[in-house]
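Q: What structure does this chain adopt?
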Amino acid sequence: MTDQGTQGTSHGPGGAVADSVDRRTLLRGSALAGAGVLAAGCSTAQAEIPSPKAAPNSARFDPRNWESIRAQFSLTRRYAHFSAFMLASHPAPVSAAIKHFRDGLDSFPQQYGLGMDDFRRSDDVRKALAGYIGTKAEQIALTDSATMGIGMVYAGLRLRAGDEVVTTEHEFYSTHEALRLRAQADGVVVRTIKLHDDPARASADQLVARLKAAITAKTRVVAVTWVYSSTGLKLPVKQVAAALAEINRRRDEQERVLLCVDGVHGFAAEDVTMQDLGCDFFMTSTHKWLFGPRGTGFVWGGPEAWARFQPVVPSFSMPAFTGWLTGRPPTGAPGDLATPGGYHSFEHRWALAKAVEFHQAIGKARVAARIRSQSDRLKEGLAGLGHVRLVTPRSAELSAGIVCCAVEGLKPEEVVGRLFEKHRISAAETPYRESFVRFGPSIVTDPREVEQVIRAMATLR
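A:
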């Protein structure tokens, strides 16, 4: 064990550390330099690198014109990309920002990338995300993926042996595995329920009622997904939050049920804020419907939710280093303390603000409407084909961008293969025990390509 008293007096002049350690002191501190952390970050001779600009051969960006928006992506036009959110293509402004930061890191990594620059750029990313989701930057922890955020939240929640987590059988692997590992570690009980018998026939009342009925006196967490990648069903999170609020009114704070949401397929496909959702924790990647840099994500938590969380990975934040140098538990913004430390793909993380800027230039409401109109038409067209079973609910209340279906007599992988080889349509099959064909209309597809999908699906008999 580390002797905190000894640690608190083992650095700095005369064997003592001042009570107040500001950023400049930390960045110049010999302890950090000796450890190789933030070394030379405080140099006044910062490299002067111009702001990122679009690549010379990129099309001029007109956010009011959908063809101009599509032209910002380097996606081949030989195919219709209805699965572009898996390993997303970067739009030109994001690619330019990544290159800008990478060039700076490659040319003079210590001067350009470490110390105050990282703090400042990461703060800029948090502020951009906060503006996008309508919250405060201090409540956002940056991650490298949704899976990192999901694992971090479920590992870090202050739960005791016997406390219950209620989840569903429809969750993606990351949630199920994170909860299994937590239960294995310290005896937390995970209870898994079935939300619906048929997603296409589900109702908001039914979904909320089944979740509410599963809550017991020992339940402390509800772990769900906003838009299920298995079926395209969108959980009415706001109604779930309201139902839990009724239960929580009769509970002490430490017994309150936290609503934790995997938001990857709703984030940037729906025009909502965290207040609109009403959840306690929200975990997502940003490379899907936002088309942000690959390898980026974040966790948002409300103040009461963060108060019930214990960081599980050391943070490379100013409050964390201050605590280490003074031998005291760190105090600071929960988003700072919860952000996993270490060295990341910083050129991607820092470029995330550009992805937010790109979407905001188009308009969140316009993006959501574009996705909605295409998915609605696709569902309508598929529902009119006798050999196709639509899995995703038709209503906007219970669906978002993802559209899932099954074709009579064909396995999902056969459908995806034929679409790709014969019709130049890139789709996917869902990676679950019960698999379906999955389409994702987005800002890189257009209405003509939606009609192309419907015509192609009509031939698959």
